[in-house]
Predict the structure.
Amino acid sequence: MLLDRHSSTAHSAYHDLLRLLLDDRTSDLRGTPSRVERNGHVYWYDSFRIGTDVRKTYIGEETPELLTRISRHRELKVEAEARAAERARLVRILRAERMMSHDAATGSLLAAMATAGVFRLGGTVVGTHAFRLYEGELGLRYRFDDLAQTGDLDIASFERLSLALDDQAEPPVEQVLANFAFEPVPTLDPGPAWRWRQSQSKGAALVEFLTPAFGEEGLRPLAALGVSAQALHHLNYLIAEPIPAAVLYRSGVLVQIPRPERFAIHKLIVAARREARDKIKAEKDRRQARFLVEALAEDRPDDLRDAYKDALSRGPKWQDRITTTLKLMP
């Protein structure tokens, strides 16, 4: 496959936009940054007073980049207005370079979820909406057939992380979805819903929440988001070490997505699981995997090789599913 690349201008503009969105997340601190250690991980919180109560809002897991931003948070706050104008300029450049933006319905929903803290609290966009965001990350143009996209949105998060953060989305996710005319899809299981469907008049889109299964698949709570999630095997591999991504809606929306090499290998696995019951989705999985594998083999071969070896090391079922899918591909 001959890779069709965006210009160096577009690739640079995307990563500048992403950097500014990450700066914005830290510039909104209302109090004092505080460090908390839990289960071998270091998390940072914004600690502030409301009356006599001390509140904590989760900022992120400690990284060198986050520590640098925290040390500059006062400076970043002063620069907020200039940064907003620069973000809008970069989005105009990216649209002029023909990088795909999201439709208004999806963009506004993702923006509302970001404002509520869904992605800050561990939510990771998966599925085709994540796939399309690799266009900016990798600087590659997509063809129409590469996407074959529906309006459905899948968000995954770790159950244990959601509980450990000791913070919650505000407003609650259920309220965000209700504001966009989504209603819970009835199930036989008690407790919060894991699927929401938009009313027919609004487009009938579907939002699903997912979480890795460690043991049997089923429903699990996501405490930070206040929803249930369908637990699935292999998802822990997909959403480990997610990366930030910029959605081209208005002046940019910060979300997070799986690493592209993990997404590619995961698609090989789920395609084998789907082949018997949904050949159309299985073919879409193989097409997305093929696109990313060929791109990463050229641009990031070490990352691709490491992700492939990691998946193969997880046992014979993983190996069989990857091999089954590869036999069906050129």
In short: The two ends are 11 Å apart (CA to CA). The chain has a mean pLDDT of 90. The first strand starts at residue 32 and ends at 38. The chain is about 50% helix and 20% strand.
